[in-house]
Amino acid sequence: MTSTTDKMMSNGRRAAMLMVLTSMVLSLSLRDALRSSIASTSYERTDNRSAVNQSDVNAEQSVIGMGKDKSGAKDQTRPAAKGKEASDAKRNLPIYLLHPDKESVSQISWETVAASWNRTATYTDLIELSKPTAALPSAEGRRPVVMIHCEPKSGSTTLRVACRQNLEKTCGIKPNGRLPKGYQNETELYPIIRSCPNTNHFCTKETVIPMDVPTFDDTTFVHMFPFRTYDEWAASALKQAFDRGRETECSRVERLVDKCIPSKMEIDFRKYGKTDLAKFKEFAVPRMNKKNESHIFILYYHRDLDKVLSMLSVVYKIPLLPGSDGHGKETRPEGTCDESILKKYHDCFSSQLMELK
Questions:
Q1: What is the pTM of this model?
Q2: Could you say which of 16, 89, 263, 291 is the most buried, measured as most Cβ atoms within 10 Å of its Cβ?
Q3: How many structural domains is the chain composed of?
Q4: Are 311 and 98 in contact (CB under 8 A)?
């Protein structure tokens, strides 16, 4: 009996031990499987994180641009982010506002100008958004060239006459009919600027400065763009059509705006000051960055033209432009085209004003 009982207890202990051992084996197997799963998941996360980090690095490199190693040499492994850098340079382009009566200067970025210059904005509105600055940038020993960008209904007739006479008198360059040579043709304009050092003033209309124009190493360009409130400018431009041809010219303009076709005369969105400035800076800024050219941008109130030229004469120690105080059109007849034509013009074109960047 005792022997039988001992055997039963011995068998029970063996069974219990076997269960413990089996449990331990299962536990170890589960633990190894779990570790393997965790390791696999961790590896995938690390791998994904590496991919994300590499993407961040690539993005950072595109923002930073071409880097340099400790020796100062360019690091070819970090490609230049030409697109973003160029875009930032255009947005941050400083625009100078002049206050002739106070003989003061303020500065505003093109980005702020573009966002604020709407149909009813005034020059005073922009001044309030600008920051006072001590003075205009220096010409830094270079030849100052004042490029007056002429727009219709902003003193362009006065300027055209003054520049035509000045260019012929100082450089002996005959005009193209009523226009100064190079006035609307940059292929003529820039060679004239280079070959005619006896004057510092040049008038131009709707031109740009392409990258293939040879670099002006010894010149500081001072670009003057006129400001006139947009709705006021458009109304004046339409009146000019009436002044020139009465109802016949008004009908011609109406036929164009009925089809949203730009006019080739005064009431043309492409000839407004903001439009011209937006276009010109697209060509000038890359030259400033790549060719180290000197370009200064001034936005002036159109009625202060002669006062602004006088300020520039003092700042850059250059002669005045003879005839800039004249008046090309002293008398204008009464009347204008029908108001409905102006509304059609605005419906066709004026939304583009706030799209200029």
A1: 0.75
A2: 263
A3: 1
A4: yes
